């Protein structure tokens, strides 16, 4: 016989709320770091002008927006906790950063399909609870979406696999 207590969700405890705020804080810091990196890298390209955009303008604006969003998330999480990074989880940060770096290194040398596969695989290693079937579906959807947006709609010359 099921009890009434099992049918209702338990209210979040103070420890749960602290953990949620800590996760928000880490996410905000990662957003600031990624936004700053994108902005700095975009400066290697011509920004152009407002009448004629250069290839670096969109990434520069996007980097500033992502970093700004990260600052808002950090401020919100910090205001709620009063502490900064009580416990840092290195595994997710390591695998997500490696996934992004591997994508950037492989997309030209190996092609879009292996780069996206490596991105999904390394990102999945950040969370021990990922299932292989979900990762295959994510890979296929992400590969299709990236190819459609960049190669078909924007005309970026991506090769699916180098040498084929």
Protein model, in words:
The protein is mainly alpha-helical and 164 residues long. 69% of the residues lie in helices and 0% in strands. It contains six helices and no strands. The radius of gyration is 20 Å and the shape is flat.
**What would you call the quaternary organization?**
single chain
Q: Which regions have little confidence, pLDDT < 50, spanning 5+ residues?
A: none
Cα distance spanning the termini: 61 Å
Number of domains: 2
Q: Can you give the mean pLDDT?
A: 82
Q: Strand pairing plus helix content: what structural class? A: mainly alpha
Order of helices and strands: HHHHHH
Strand content: under 5%
Secondary structure tally, helices = 6
Shape type: flat
The biggest beta sheet is recorded as: none
What integer value in Å does the Rg equal?
Answer: 20 Å
Query: Tally of extended strands?
Result: 0
Q: Estimate the helix proportion, in percent.
A: 55-70%
Write a concise keyword list for the protein shown above:
164 residues, 2 domains, 6 helices, flat
In a nutshell, what does this entry contain?
Helix 2 (14-42) packs antiparallel against helix 3, helix 4 (90-109) packs antiparallel against helix 5 and helix 5 (112-124) runs antiparallel to helix 6.
How are the elements arranged and paired?
Blueprint lengths: L3 H4 L6 H29 L14 H25 L8 H20 L2 H13 L7 H22 L11
Helix pairs in contact: 2-3, 4-5, 5-6
């Amino acid at each position: 016989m099921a009890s009434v207590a099992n049918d209702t969700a338990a209210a979040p405890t103070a420890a749960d709320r602290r953990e949620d705020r800590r996760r928000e804080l880490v996410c905000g810091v990662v957003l600031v770091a990624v936004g700053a990196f994108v902005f700095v890298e975009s400066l290697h390209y011509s920004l152009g002008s407002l009448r004629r955009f250069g290839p670096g303008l969109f990434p520069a604006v996007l980097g500033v927006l992502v970093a700004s969003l990260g600052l808002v998330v950090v401020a919100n999480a910090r205001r709620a906790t009063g502490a900064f990074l009580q416990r840092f989880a290195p595994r997710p940060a390591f695998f997500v950063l490696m996934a992004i770096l591997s994508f950037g290194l492989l997309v030209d040398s190996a092609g879009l399909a292996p780069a996206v596969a490596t991105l999904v695989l390394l990102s999945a290693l950040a969370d021990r609870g990922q299932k292989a079937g979900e990762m295959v579906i994510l890979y296929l959807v992400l590969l299709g979406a990236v190819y459609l947006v960049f190669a078909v709609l924007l005309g970026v010359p991506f090769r699916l696999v180098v040498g084929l």
